[in-house]
Amino acid sequence: MIGKPALPLADSRHQSRAQIAVISLALALTIFLLGTSLWPVAYRGALQISRWRLEQQLSSWPSLTSDHYIIKYRPQDEAIAPLVLTAAEKAYHLLTREANYTPPGQILVVIYPSSAELNAVFGWSAQESALGVYWGGAIQVLSPSAWIEARDSWQLGQIFWATGLMVHELSHLILDYKTAGNYPRWFSEGLAQYREQQHCQAAQSAYHDLDPALLYTLPQLEQFNQLDNEQLAYRQSLSLVEYLVAAGGPNAISTIVDSLAGGATFSQALQKIGISSPAALEQKWLAWLK
Predict the structure, then answer these.
(1) pLDDT tens digits, residue range 206-253?
(2) Is the torsion defined by CA of 285, 186, 71, 78 positive or negative?
(3) What single-letter DSSP state applies at residue 151?
(4) 119, 193, 216, 268: which could join 124 in a potential S-S bond, CB 3.0 to 4.6 Å?
């Protein structure tokens, strides 16, 4: 199963709803008491708490560590963990340089040996086929051995990198931390695929693949998880990011992300690259597709 999976972001449902409720309440109380100027600090703090709690829940699992990562895995994936770490480190060096941002501390990556175990964590049905998830400051992935056929570990590592999974999930994490959650969901999905395209050739350009008569509006894309055709939403999100680069130049993405990190709304960030509003973006993008 190397085809494009559904890759949920931070609004997926984790089994520990009580944990989320406590963190959210603490975050809201902090913002109320200290003011909105400290929102980024409180938001990143909540991510770190969530990540720490997950690590504590998996304290009995074996670990593989580096300066940038803690890899948690089941004993049967002892030979797989180094392959995941290698891909994660490669993605880290590429994406942190591009983003001009380093996430705090070591990033937690959890490897699950089966789809059933990964799905159980998020309360998904057996029909779900996600290979990886960024949620709450941590990355959780299905073991490459569960979905990649390879003749040896070297080939397995090469194929795993080429799927773009670690680039995709780390792109979500870096954007989430850098902007303190200040971004539209579709932008994160489009950017993660765009980074795959740049570094792994894993995501094909969506420029010629879209039928304008079937597209979601930008407000509809905000309801990403509720859309009937999630694959269309992914392709459309990638196409929108491709347009932003085509219209705004090679620095368009960094300009938008830096603006969001500074507290700008998405509309204000678009203005930095000469697009007056999300509505104008949608109009210009549709004209570009024709």
Answers:
(1) 666 788 888 999 999 988 888 999 899 999 999 999 999 999 999 999
(2) negative
(3) S
(4) 119
Question: Whole-prediction pTM value?
Answer: 0.88
User: Could you tell me if 134 and 165 are in contact, meaning their C-beta atoms sit under 8 angstroms apart?
Assistant: no
Q: Are 277 and 264 in contact (CB under 8 A)?
A: no
AA identity, residue 257:
V
Q: Are 132 and 5 in contact (CB under 8 A)?
A: yes
Scanning the structure block, which residue is given the tokens 């938008």? Answer: 256
User: What are the structure tokens assigned to 119, written together?
Assistant: 């799905």
96 vs 260: CA distance, rounded Å:
17
> Which overall architecture, per CATH, does domain 17-176 show?
3-Layer(aba) Sandwich (3.40)
Q: Where are the domains of the chain?
A: 17-176, 182-289
Q: Which SS3 state, helix, strand or coil, does residue 1 take?
A: coil
φ, ψ (nearest 5 deg) of residue 112: -105, 135
Q: What angle do CA 129, 77, 62 make, to 5 degrees?
A: 115
